[in-house]
Each structure stands twice: as C-alpha cells, then as structure tokens.
Amino acid sequence: MHRESWNNAGWKRALAWLIFGVVVSAPALHAVYWAATQGPLRGLDPLLLGAWHRATPRDSASGLFLMGWSKLVSTPVIWPLMALTSWIFWRKNRLHDAIGFLCAVALPALVALAAKEFYDVARPDVDWAVKSHWSSAYPSGHVAVIFALCGLTAFVGWRQGKGAWWTAGAVAATLVATVLMAYSRVVLGAHFFSDVLGGVVLGLIWLPVSIAVTRALQTRP
Fold first, then answer.
1. Domain map of the chain by residue range?
2. Confidence of residue 219 (pLDDT cuts 50, 70, 90)
C-alpha cells in the first residue's frame, strides 16, 4: 500500500516550526508568570479561586459535569484516543495529520511539564480540591492540550472542505471547550487562574505550530 513520503525540505520546515514553538513558549509563559506574581494580575488568583468555587460547588450538578469534563484530557483518556486517531489517519494515508495531532497533544503537554519543574508553583491548598497531584501547578497542561487539539480538529475539517458553517461551529466549540476546561480546573481546586491562563498561552502557540507541521509534511498532489 502506498504511503506518504516527504522530501527533506518538508521535514526541515516542520522541525523549524517545532523549535520555534519551544523557543517562543519560554518567554510567553514567563510573561504570564510575571503578571501573576509581580504585575497587574497579582492577587487575582486567590480571589478567583474562592469566587469560582462558590459559584460552582464541586458537589453540585455543574461541578460534577466539570469534573467529568476535566477528565477528558487526563492521561488514561487522551493517549488511547490519540493512538486510535493516529492509526486511523495512518490507514487513510494521512500521516501528516497523525503527526500534527500528536504535536498538538504531546508537545504542549511536554512543555507544560518542563515549565512545571522550572517554576514549581504549589497547587491550591484547599480542602475541596479533587485530589493531590504529582506535578506542580503552572501552567495547566489540560487547558493547553484541549485548545490545541480542538483547534487543529477545526482546521483539518476546514481543509477537508466541511464548509463555512461547520468551520465556524468547530471554532466556537474550540473556544467553549477551552473555557470549560479552564473553569473546571480552577473550580476543582487543581489550578489557579494564572495556571490556566498559562495553558491558554501554550495552546495559542502550539495550535499554529501543529497546523504548520501538518502543512509542511503534507504531500502535494
């Protein structure tokens, strides 16, 4: 069975975009960290943490929904889903899309883990937190991954000619999914507002990078 093959120029462009994403992520995340600790967002984290929890208690119907929503990007769910998606794309001779989706999930998650080690921000110390976490808080990998993943899904659908209405709906769904994930992570006591804001920044970086990778590796007819 014929499979896609890419020239060296495509691989080099893809690698250049990946390096660009890593290089840009560092100052962008530090800008959010500075804003939350010394800049205009200082003091906002504990204020929003308490206010959002009071607005949506964890044991309410909305809180239970957000708990389930938050688990969509947990390791036991997202990686089997990505393995299945990548296999489907590979079978359809669209390995460039498979690599793009892996970039949208794996790379923001890995950058987030590296940043967590560097900044070592403690998780919220509240008795209503869902569970203890093995990693530190800043930035939120959940938010970064869902933004990049849903955004790339919207792009792939648009490229496949799904139409303007489908594309607009996919973009709106991306924004709603990201907002819900960010809100859920704060409501559940897993993150502060600045943590999810850092996740949004990562998503904004790695979504276009993932799109650029798929375009660089796509075989032209």
1. 8-217
2. low
Using only C-alpha atoms, the chain has a radius of gyration, in whole angstroms, of 18
Read off the tokens for 120: 């070592």
Residue tagged 């200082």 (tokens)? 42
pLDDT at residue 220 is higher than 50: yes
Selection from 184, 169, 41, 28 nearest residue 108 by Cα? 28
- The 3-state secondary structure of the chain reads CCCCCCCHHHHHHHHHHHHHHHHHHHHHHHHHHHHHHCCCCCCHHHHHHHHHHHHCCCCCHHHHHHHHHHHHHCHHHHHHHHHHHHHHHHHCCCHHHHHHHHHHHHHHHHHHHHHHHHHCCCCCCCCCCCCCCCCCCCCCHHHHHHHHHHHHHHHHHHHCCCCHHHHHHHHHHHHHHHHHHHHHHHHCCCCCHHHHHHHHHHHHHHHHHHHHHHHHHCCCC
pTM across the whole model:
0.89
C-alpha triplet 174, 43, 25: angle, nearest 5°: 45
Taking every pair of C-alpha atoms in the chain, what is the biggest distance, in angstroms? 59
Tens of pLDDT, residue by residue over 68-108, are 888 888 877 888 888 888 888 888 888 888 899 999 999 99
pLDDT of residue 1: 39
